[in-house]
């Protein structure tokens, strides 16, 4: 080997750099462990401790020192499936941004196009592109985007804006830029909120140009609180309010009008007297006040007063809203009241007549106007802080700018004169509606008080300081992982990695003897390099990422196997050890096969990285890094030891007594049985397609949308019983055992179309109420839903995928699989210079994919582990494509070599001999892969078992197809003339 000294130098340098990079991970882990011990299980105390030592020196190399913050930035970060926490993908509403840019245009073409874009947006299509398509179809040239009532409005005019003379194409460019600016603004607002929230190493990033923002909060535990924080637009407004006596006549009239259209059952129980029922009946009991006769009044739980029209149950708010939106009801509003805006307060609890606590919300009527604009906007707020009011209750203090201070003084002065109230409204929820009793308030300082706890005031002050979002942020995908589940994943991943490493190393020693030891040393160095690169890149390690590392252990020895098998052949042909090694490491020896096989691997890994997201991207990252580092260590590190052995004149035979005669006289007519293998594969393909068409798949929420909860109970549970209980609440639910029989995986599509934290919290509460009977009396909602250290019962993992993002994921999956097959097929055409090689390889891969899909379709109802078709499964399919191509390329390289060589016989005989000569390397490379996959299947944990099973089946069938599908297809598609030409050439060579 030339330049041996240079290679040694780079190997040692690379090893030192890797150790240096990994040292930060070890130091950071120790500091965090100390923080955890100090905090004693209190997450806030732990965060404060780590924040307090952020600038302290915790690591010294003698010539330089590092603070904890610097060490933390250089460590290998753990993904949420290992660390625990919350992962959320937010979709900034481009529809809302477009409405804002148009000044809430009333143009019918514009608004119909917005609705059509929402309904007809194709998978992976940006909403703004769908809107432009819909506008073009609806306007048909009759209306321009540059119309004054759409985008050529006053706010968008000026430099870089929209003018009346612009074409639709020109306006589109401006609007796209404005939308991007709004998304960037939303990104900045969310970053400010998250930075103040108090979790270690938060991650926030924009996802391309989709308007989507990824937020990762490792270690975060209060699920409902975080979702509210992220989705709050912080649209702060100040409205004047109507009093109950001013709006009461409308309530009475609406109640009477609704009697004619609403069907109600008459009950004899009378309604408790309150201000509105008194107005309705003049204080007299009558049939009109009987329970069931009054669509609005009957729903009042308790009396209001002042600006509060009444207190209602939260479950009735949707019904009341629908009443007040009806045209035949709103027409009953007279004069300026026709612009009234009915909104709800923040939920609170009161005691009913039986002294039982009930949850209620207050109803308010805001003094609206023709443009539905508040008396004063919240954009004037310059600072906010959590504080306490005069009664010692938590509140939020705000400071306004000069313009705001002047407006606030005018507004409070008017309220003082009119003895009215000012509603402080955040995101259409009234937080308080105080009166003004001491004259106009100067200076621009105000306070929001109400039913708060300390945490809520901290969050509210946080979002007000950060500013409002330019549009609604909807959670379209989320995942919550408890810290105890993360620790289990780490333990499972570590166990599978250690056992896999030992098993592969043991096999290499048994099969190749001393050369196997050299391969094992190269494998150890490969792992060091891998982790060093992951650390230097700041990569995030996930459970699939660990699977990728374990998988790399199997592939890392592939190159050594190919080289060693070639060296054995050269030794059998009579060459010396030195000559055999040089021949095996040459391009005509093993290098050509290694390069072709690994290029196909890299191409499929790249496709996986491009189309994957989250943990799948982590799997692709470790896989790609592992391919590159294993190539270096297998080819160069192991070679250093082999050359040293040769120089010392030591015996090296690449065999042991156990493996000496393996496959040495192996002669099997692979092409002779092709009719039977074709028949078998055709039958399998037909059965698979038929099963896919009839049985379908167990599609995960990644593909169809929905909510999934992994719930642990104190004892074993009957899935059917739980399914009945949840179906009664959610309408439909899928429940199955997940791992142990005290753990269930629950999937539902309940309220998946609804956005906002309220819908998520409602689902969580309904789930708890339905299942709490299966727990001891100490189980509370917070313990059941939220994460905490040592959690063993309740929801340990939860995920949500909205229908829109599910469609995007499914589209990405299709393109990823098709793209991988086409890219690899194109590479094989270029490498082998014959389309027949590419066709055979693609036929084999298509066969493998259909086979794996068929197995999953046939067995998903019967297997004791999850067999969902989701992103993880697609990652497995792409990995199978890579390994199937790998096996096929190894066989094809030997076929090409034999066809270009001197072997005598007919075309089929030459091909058969070439296949037989690859058996040792084909079986060995597949066996090492199967070893590590079996280990991961057994020890890797329930969450990746289905993912590993797909790869396990794929590797086995991929080995079969490379021998019995790819090569026969190659032979059958080569013309008779080409075959005859090869046979003649070989006969001439022999002669």
TrEMBL record:
Domain Protein translocase subunit SecDF P1: 184-240
InterPro entries, alphabetized: SecD (IPR005791), SecD/SecF_arch_bac (IPR022813), SecD/SecF_CS (IPR022646), SecD_1st (IPR048631), SecD_SecF_C (IPR048634), SecD_SecF_C_bact (IPR055344), SecDF_P1_head (IPR054384), SecF_bac (IPR005665)
Source organism, top-level taxon: Bacteria
Membrane-spanning ranges: 493-510, 517-540, 594-613, 619-642, 676-697, 813-830, 837-860, 872-892, 923-941, 947-971
Domain SecDF P1 head subdomain: 375-471
Membrane topology: Multi-pass membrane protein
Protein export membrane protein SecD/SecF C-terminal domain segment(s): 472-640, 794-973
Keywords tagged on the record: Cell membrane, Membrane, Protein transport, Translocation, Transmembrane, Transmembrane helix, Transport
Name recorded for this polypeptide: Multifunctional fusion protein
Its biological purpose: Part of the Sec protein translocase complex. Interacts with the SecYEG preprotein conducting channel. SecDF uses the proton motive force (PMF) to complete protein translocation after the ATP-dependent function of SecA.
Subcellular location: Cell membrane
Family: Belongs to the SecD/SecF family. SecF subfamily.
Assembly information from the UniProt record: Forms a complex with SecF. Part of the essential Sec protein translocation apparatus which comprises SecA, SecYEG and auxiliary proteins SecDF. Other proteins may also be involved.
């Amino acid at each position: 080997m030339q330049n041996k000294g240079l290679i040694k130098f780079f190997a040692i340098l690379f090893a030192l750099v890797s150790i240096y990079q990994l040292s930060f991970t070890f130091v950071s882990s120790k500091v965090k462990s100390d923080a955890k011990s100090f905090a004693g299980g209190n997450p806030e105390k732990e965060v404060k401790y780590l924040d307090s030592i952020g600038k302290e020196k915790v690591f010294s190399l003698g010539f330089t020192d590092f603070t904890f913050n610097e060490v933390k930035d250089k460590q290998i970060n753990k993904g949420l499936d290992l660390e625990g926490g919350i992962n959320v993908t937010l979709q900034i509403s481009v529809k809302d941004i477009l409405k804002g840019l148009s000044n809430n245009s009333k143009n019918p073409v514009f608004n119909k196009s917005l609705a059509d874009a929402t309904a007809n947006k194709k998978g992976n299509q940006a909403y703004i592109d769908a809107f432009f398509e819909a506008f073009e179809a609806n306007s048909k040239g009759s209306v321009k985007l540059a119309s004054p009532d759409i985008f050529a409005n006053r706010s968008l005019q000026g430099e870089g804006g929209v003018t009346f003379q612009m074409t639709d194409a020109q306006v589109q460019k401006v609007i796209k830029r404005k939308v991007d600016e709004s998304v960037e603004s939303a990104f900045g607002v969310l970053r400010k909120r998250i930075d103040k929230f108090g979790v270690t190493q938060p991650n926030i990033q924009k996802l391309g140009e989709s308007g989507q923002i990824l937020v990762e909060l490792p270690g975060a535990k209060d699920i409902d609180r975080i979702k509210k924080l992220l989705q709050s637009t912080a649209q702060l407004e100040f409205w004047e309010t109507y009093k109950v006596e001013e709006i009461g006549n409308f309530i009475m009239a609406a109640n009477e009008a609704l009697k004619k259209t609403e069907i109600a059952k008459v009950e004899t129980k009378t309604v408790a007297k309150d201000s509105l029922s008194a107005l309705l009946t003049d204080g007299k009991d009558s049939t009109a006040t009987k329970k069931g006769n009054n669509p609005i009044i009957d729903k009042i739980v308790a009396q209001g007063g002042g600006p509060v029209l009444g207190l209602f149950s939260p479950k009735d708010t949707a019904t009341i809203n629908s009443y007040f939106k009806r045209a035949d009801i709103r027409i009953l509003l007279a004069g300026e009241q026709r612009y009234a805006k009915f909104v709800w307060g923040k939920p609170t609890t009161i005691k009913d007549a039986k002294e039982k606590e009930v949850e209620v919300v207050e109803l308010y009527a805001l003094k609206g106007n023709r443009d539905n604009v508040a008396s004063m906007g919240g954009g004037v707020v310059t600072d906010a802080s959590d504080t306490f009011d005069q009664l010692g209750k938590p509140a939020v203090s705000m400071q306004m700018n000069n313009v705001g201070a002047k407006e606030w003084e005018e507004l409070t002065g008017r309220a003082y004169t009119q003895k009215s109230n000012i509603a402080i409204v955040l995101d259409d929820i009234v937080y308080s509606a105080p009166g003004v009793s001491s004259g106009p308030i100067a200076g621009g300082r105000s306070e929001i008080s109400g039913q708060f706890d300390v945490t809520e005031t901290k969050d509210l002050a946080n979002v007000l300081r950060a500013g409002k979002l330019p549009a609604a942020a909807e959670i379209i995908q989320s995942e919550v992982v408890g810290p105890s589940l993360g620790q289990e994943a780490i333990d499972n991943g570590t166990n599978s990695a250690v056992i896999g490493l030992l098993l592969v190393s043991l096999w290499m020693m048994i099969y190749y003897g001393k050369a196997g030891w050299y391969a094992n040393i190269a494998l150890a160095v490969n792992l060091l390099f891998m982790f060093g690169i992951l650390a230097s890149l700041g990569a995030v390690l996930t459970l699939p990422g660990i699977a990728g590392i374990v998988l790399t252990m199997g592939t890392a020895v592939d190159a050594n196997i190919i080289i060693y098998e070639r060296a054995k052949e050269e030794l059998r042909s009579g060459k010396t050890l030195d000559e055999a090694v040089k021949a095996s490491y040459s391009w005509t020896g093993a290098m050509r096969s290694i390069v072709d096989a690994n290029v196909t691997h890299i191409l499929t890994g790249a496709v996986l990285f491009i189309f994957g997201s989250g943990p799948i991207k982590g799997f692709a990252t470790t896989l790609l890094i592992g391919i590159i580092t294993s190539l270096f260590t297998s080819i160069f590190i192991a070679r250093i030891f082999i050359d040293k052995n040769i120089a010392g004149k030591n015996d090296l035979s690449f065999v042991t007594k156990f493996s000496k005669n393996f496959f040495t006289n192996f002669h099997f007519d692979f092409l002779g049985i092709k009719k039977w293998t074709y028949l078998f594969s055709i039958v399998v393909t037909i059965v698979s397609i038929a099963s896919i068409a009839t049985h379908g798949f167990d599609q995960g929420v990644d593909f169809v949308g929905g909510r999934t909860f992994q719930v642990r109970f104190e004892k074993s549970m009957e899935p059917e019983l739980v399914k009945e209980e949840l179906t009664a609440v959610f309408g439909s639910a899928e429940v199955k055992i997940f791992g142990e029989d005290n753990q269930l995986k629950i999937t539902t599509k309940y309220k998946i179309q609804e956005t906002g934290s309220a819908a998520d919290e409602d689902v969580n509460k309904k789930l708890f109420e339905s299942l709490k009977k299966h727990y001891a009396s100490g189980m509370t909602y917070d313990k059941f839903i939220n994460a905490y250290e040592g959690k063993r019962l309740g929801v340990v993992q939860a995920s949500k995928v909205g229908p829109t993002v599910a469609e995007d994921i499914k589209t990405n999956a299709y393109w990823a699989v098709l793209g991988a097959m086409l890219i690899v097929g194109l590479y094989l055409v270029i490498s082998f210079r014959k389309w027949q090689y590419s066709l055979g390889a693609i036929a084999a891969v298509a066969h493998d994919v259909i086979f794996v899909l068929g197995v999953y379709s046939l067995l998903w109802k019967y297997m004791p582990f999850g067999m969902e078709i989701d992103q993880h499964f697609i990652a497995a399919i792409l990995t199978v494509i890579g390994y199937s191509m790998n096996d096929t390329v190894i066989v094809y390289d030997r076929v090409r070599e034999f066809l270009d060589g001197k072997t005598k016989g007919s075309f089929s005989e030459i091909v058969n001999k070439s296949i037989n000569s690859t058996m040792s390397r084909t079986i060995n490379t597949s066996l090492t892969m199967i070893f590590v996959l079996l280990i991961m299947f057994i020890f890797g944990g329930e969450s990746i078992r289905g993912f590993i099973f797909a790869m396990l089946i794929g590797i086995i069938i991929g080995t079969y197809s490379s021998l019995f599908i790819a090569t026969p297809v190659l032979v059958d598609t080569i013309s008779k003339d080409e075959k005859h030409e090869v046979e003649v050439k070989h006969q001439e060579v022999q002669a």
